[in-house]
Amino acid sequence: MANTDDQFKKVISHAKEYGYIFQSSEIYDGLSAIYDYGQNGAELKKNIREYWWKAMVQMHDNIVGIDASIFMHPTTWKASGHVDAFNDPLIDNKDSKKRYRADVLVEDYVAKIEAKIDKEVAKAAKRFGDAFDKEQFLETNPRVVKYQEECNAILKRLGQSLEKEDLADVKALIEELGIADPETGSKNWTDVKQFNLMFGTKLGASAESAMDLYLRPETAQGIFVNFLNVQKTGRMKIPFGIAQTGKAFRNEIIARQFIFRMREFEQMEMQFFIKPGTQVEWYDYWKATRLKWHLSLGMGKDNYRFHDHEKLAHYADAAADIEFKFPFGFKELEGIHSRTDFDLKQHEEFSGKKLQYFDPEENKNYVPYVLETSIGLDRMFLAVFSNSLQEEDLGDGKSRTVLKLPAVLAPTKAAILPLVKKDGLPELAQKILEELKWDFNVTYDEKDAVGRRYRRQDAAGTPFCITVDHQSLEDSTVTIRHRDSMEQSRVAIDDLKSLIEKEVNVRYWLQKMNDL
Length: 516
Ligand code: ATP
What we know:
The chain is α+β, with helices and mostly antiparallel strands. It has three domains: 1-72 and 210-399, Bira Bifunctional Protein, Domain 2 (BirA Bifunctional Protein, domain 2, 2-Layer Sandwich), CATH 3.30.930.10; 87-196, no CATH class; 412-515, Rossmann fold (3-Layer(aba) Sandwich). Helix content is 39%, strand content 25%. It has a seven-stranded mixed β-sheet. Residues 218, 250, 252, 261-262, 265, 267, 332-335, 374-376, 378-379 line the site of adenosine-5'-triphosphate (ATP). It catalyses: tRNA(Gly) + glycine + ATP = glycyl-tRNA(Gly) + AMP + diphosphate. Belongs to the class-II aminoacyl-tRNA synthetase family. InterPro entries: aa-tRNA-synt_IIb (IPR002314), aa-tRNA-synth_II (IPR006195), aa-tRNA-synth_II/BPL/LPL (IPR045864), Anticodon-bd (IPR004154), Anticodon-bd_dom_sf (IPR036621), Gly-tRNA_synthase/POLG2 (IPR027031), Gly_tRNA_ligase_bac (IPR022961), GlyRS-like_core (IPR033731). ATP binds at residues 250-252, 260-265, 332-333, 376-379.
């Protein structure tokens, strides 16, 4: 098995080599935890955003989308709790001078114990073969049970200490567990302190009249402050949702995992406004629905799991993460939060305006409860990209690097390749390209032997290669090659559009949600 560090390095270098992700301002040595999307990355990101938007907005009659500004009135962030409570507990190592998130140090310690459990499971599965019952093993194997209890106890204590803002106990926990600086091994820690993650800036020309603003740390508040605008102008009836995608900014303490944790990133959020008292049922509904959306992309059921929060944010009465198995282990990809009426009530209080809904069935006004689904677009990009990048053994000592992106998300759907650069083949290939580009993002490549061109497209993630040869001139057929199976078949040029369409259209993929 490839070392996970090596695998992750490969993901990063492949993303650069194939025009997916570049370090921002690279010629000036970059900016930490800020990245630019290249020609292929921009397309993949756009396709993921669209896949989410279609599933959430287009396919739900009662969900609409908005596009709120990044700058918001500063009182927004007082009302939301971000000015007072949007903090991460940080700890410095006195020897290495490196800064860490104290909660992440503890969580990583727990992840190591969990990895031991996984190892025991794998060993037992091998030993028992078909007779292996994973559930039973997890419940009865004494070593595994002990590991699990240890994890639970640590996470519980961490959750409680953070909840109580008992930062001294978080430090004590780190010391008791003997957690060392992951880079240097030193255990010489400072106290744990809180650090606010919002970026500040100023609005206005003169120093005296300038107003202190924040770059929004989440897109959700743009939805809450527009709740009544949308409800009234859209004549929305509860339950209904408001969705949006857009940039968010956080001055993250640790930013060492490529696009997993960025200082400038994009969120895709949806706030679902419901009748108070119905939150448990909607919480379950959105947990299940969002998981189905992920599974529809076919990236492997075992790569997802739910993690229910021990420590709840100040606004939530229930919260769970959908975690994905990244190259560095299971980590949060999306959050599902039952936010109660916290946000709307806070905005009522700070703005002095009523943010209520008149329920015609109940014949009364109330502040709706909110169920939120919140996913990082860049994190989703990393999940898709890292899962798709595979090194495939082709036998005879040969191998290929292939980026098996779900075809619906692939930046380029097909490459048109003339077998040789003469005899009228490039002209016919160009003609096919001109026709297909009305419907799909397609590319043309005539350089190098066709085998090398196939490899190049495999590595770039293009699902189809269409090769134009001499026979094409005679009978208007071409070869279509599938990236994943490498199978080739001869088809009529006139059929290309429908063949590609069938495998890349959003409907085909999203409908899989219904079968899950
Ligand atoms: P974490 O615990 O990883 O810091 P969070 O719980 O603070 O994340 P939320 O505030 O719930 O995250 O944000 C919702 C989603 O936004 C996350 O599930 C994640 O996908 C994404 N996200 C949050 N912070 C970042 C970041 N710094 N870079 C990229 N994506 C992020």
